[in-house]
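Reminder: ligand-aware prediction takes two inputs, not one.
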Amino acid sequence: MKEKDCIFCKIANGEIPSATIYEDPDFRVILDLSPASRGHALILPKNHFADLCSLDERTAEKVLSVAAKIGAAMKKSLNCSGFNVVQNNGTAAGQTVFHFHVHVIPRYDNGPVMVAWEPGKASAEELAEVANQIKGELQ
Ligand code: 5GP
Ligand code: ZN
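Here is what comes back for the chain with guanosine-5'-monophosphate:
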């Protein structure tokens, strides 16, 4: 299941060359063209899914173990101290390519600095209200 004009479909299936670091029947893992840090990688399923909510079960079951494999290899080969696993869904969340992908971003003790979210505040009542809103949809 591929989408005709999708750049990540073409990269994942080898129609467009990429710096590939890992490949198996379901995924290709490539280096990001605009890396946040040295070694920033993208896990691309070979099939097209727009985002996390559209993933099939097979891909969903496998993708985190691929991320773990890549992260462990980065720690050994690049000597990074850790790594972030990031996955954006929707424009508001920073998704720019609408073919599901997972970022694996090596983190080094000497930077670069990356901005995370600022922890906010919420009362117990507010947390209970939000929890009920989401739970209502899950039942
Ligand atoms: P998103 O913002 O959708 O989560 O991430 C898209 C990522 O894909 C960005 O980090 C961007 O640099 C990367 N990217 C976009 N087009 C290409 C491309 O053609 N080749 C590679 N290797 N990375 C790309
Ligand atoms: Zn695609």
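The CA atoms of residues 84 and 105 lie 5 Å apart. The mean pLDDT is 96. We will return to this case in the review session.
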